[in-house]
Design goal:
By secondary structure, this protein is of the alpha/beta class. 46% of the residues lie in helices and 16% in strands.
């Protein structure tokens, strides 16, 4: 079953742009879960430009209340600083169901590339082991076209998350090259026991085609498009529309 984890970072962006506590990130996450979402994703960054450490703690408690998965994304190499205890420490404290490691730098607007597995395996391996000792399932953000993507398994990770930004851009232009890369990467990963997640720029326009072409995706993490669509159609209705899209594409109820 492909599960939908809603990324609520953009709710925090709106809140932080004005200060105060509105819109309420936890209330928005609760609406998503009440509407059938299978989990919540957040990606706290060291500069706290959207999700903050205090949000991580409250959202972890909410996911525990609902008995759904909390997916915490972040760069495990980013050092701690005031207001940001570090990704590993956040995971140690809240014990998310899944820790998704992403090699984003402080200056990036959004995550736009995966790990270089030819270079990063030795540094990632002890961090993956530590996260697994906290009870976290570990997923590594990966470029579908990376020639060494299967080396993710050498770190001890259970999953990869395919970076679907290139797929979304190609889909909009009618170019299937990036989709073929995703198909091949998923097949290679699954053949050696890595499960596959997907995320970035997935939307109602392109999600169904992706899931029909790339079978056995375990989870899609969707935030930017979903929150944008919700501005027009409502958050609850938009979450349900994504669940219908998944069911239609995968034949799952």
């Amino acid at each position: 079953m492909t599960r939908l984890s809603v990324n609520v970072n953009k709710i925090a962006v709106l809140r932080n742009s004005r200060g105060g506590s509105e819109p309420d990130v936890v209330r928005a996450a609760r609406v998503c879960l009440d509407s059938g979402a299978h989990g919540i994703t957040v990606h706290p960054r060291p500069d706290a430009r959207h999700i903050r450490a205090d949000d991580v703690y409250t959202l972890a408690a909410l996911c525990g209340e609902y008995e759904v998965e909390f997916n915490l994304e972040g760069n495990p190499f980013a050092p701690a600083r005031p207001g940001y205890p570090g990704f590993i420490e956040l995971c140690r404290t809240v014990r998310p169901a899944q820790a998704t490691l992403v090699p984003d730098g402080d200056g990036q607007i959004t995550s736009d590339h995966g790990f270089d597995f030819n270079r990063d395996v030795p540094a990632l391996t002890p961090l993956v082991e530590q996260l697994k000792s906290f009870g976290c399932r570990v997923s590594l953000f990966a470029d579908a076209e990376h020639p060494a993507i299967v080396r993710a398994v050498e770190c001890g990770a259970e999953r990869i998350e395919l970076y679907t930004g290139p797929y979304a851009a190609g889909h909009a232009e009618g170019d299937s090259t990036a989709l073929q890369h995703c198909i091949q990467a998923a097949q290679a990963a699954q053949a050696i026991g890595l499960a596959v997640n997907a995320g970035h720029d997935l939307s109602q326009d392109n999600l169904g085609d992706f899931l029909r072409a790339v079978p056995h995706v375990q989870e899609v993490s969707i935030g930017h498009a979903l929150i944008g669509e919700a501005l027009y159609n409502g958050l609850a209705a938009t979450v349900r529309a994504y669940l219908d899209c998944i069911a239609s594409a995968t034949g799952e109820v």
